[in-house]
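job 3f2a | input accepted
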Amino acid sequence: MVFAELKPQIEKLPRPEQRKALAFLKHLLREGTAENRTDLARRHTEIEAGRKISHEELKARLGLT
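job 3f2a | predicted structure (65 res):
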């Protein structure tokens, strides 16, 4: 399948679904890159050092509460 076949389908999606598709494509482009591995390692180190938030705080920051 080529982009020309996907584009009309993506354009028909509701905005929230388009955002999900965009996030997925960004993920695909970024995964496996050296920059991503470095960023994940940095974040892992921060979490292990205690710099993290609770599930409730995350939901509040995302406006899900």
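job 3f2a | The chain is about 75% helix and 0% strand.
job 3f2a | closed
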